[in-house]
Write a structure and sequence with these properties.
A hairpin with a 2-residue loop joins strand 9 and strand 10. It is globular and about 45 Å long. It is mainly β. The strands form 5 sheets. A 4-stranded antiparallel beta sheet has the order 1-2-3-4, with no helix packed on it.
C-alpha cells in the first residue's frame, strides 16, 4: 500500500518490536543476537548483545526490559546499561525449548510462549508460561500447538498465535 514507508532498514532478521518507556522503538536482530533501539530519525543502535537468538521484547510497568531468547533458552533481563542477565531458564527442573514472545499482565506477571517444549513425538505441543514478579513459573495455558506470538489486548484478554493449529 501507498501509506507504508521504511522507517529503519538493514537489520538482519528483525523480530519482536516493542515501544519502550522512552517512546522509542526497540527490536532484536535474531541472527546477530542484538537488542536494538531506533531513533525517531530511523537511526539504529545496539543497546545490548545477548549472545543467543533473541526473539521478543517486553517492558514491565517499571520500564525494565525483558527479552525472550530462543538460543539461550531463557527469558533475559536487560538493564538500562545494557548488561544481560538470565531472569528464568527452566520450569519444574526442565530447560525451556526456546522462548519466543512475551508480554506483561497488569498484575506484573510475565507471560511467554515456548513453542518447542515437549520432546518427540510431538515437540510442537507446549504451554504458555506465567512468571510472577518474584520469579515463580507456572503454566498459564497448556497443550497449545506451537504457541508463538502473544499480546495483551485488555486486562482480561490475551491473544496467542497457535501456529501449528493455524
Amino acid at each position: 500500500p501507498d501509506d507504508f514507508s521504511i522507517f529503519a532498514s538493514e537489520i538482519p532478521t528483525p523480530e519482536g518490536p516493542a515501544v519502550g518507556p522512552d517512546g522509542l522503538l526497540y527490536l532484536v536482530s535474531a541472527d546477530d543476537g542484538k537488542v536494538l533501539r531506533v531513533s525517531p530519525q530511523g537511526q539504529v543502535e545496539t543497546v545490548a548483545e545477548t549472545g543467543g537468538r533473541p526473539n521478543g521484547i517486553a517492558f514491565n510497568s517499571s520500564g525494565e526490559m525483558f527479552v525472550a531468547d530462543a538460543g539461550l533458552k531463557s527469558i533475559l533481563h536487560v538493564s538500562g546499561s545494557g548488561s544481560v542477565d538470565v531472569f528464568i531458564d527452566e520450569f519444574d527442573g526442565t530447560s525451556f525449548g526456546g522462548p519466543n514472545d512475551l508480554c506483561f499482565l497488569p498484575t506484573g506477571d510475565l507471560l511467554f510462549t515456548d513453542p518447542i517444549r515437549r520432546p518427540a513425538p510431538d515437540p510442537a505441543i507446549s504451554p504458555v508460561y506465567k512468571v510472577n514478579p518474584s520469579g515463580e513459573v507456572s503454566a498459564f495455558a497448556n497443550d497449545l500447538a506451537y504457541p508463538n506470538g502473544i499480546a495483551l489486548a485488555s486486562e482480561h484478554t490475551v491473544y496467542v498465535s497457535e501456529s501449528r493449529a493455524q
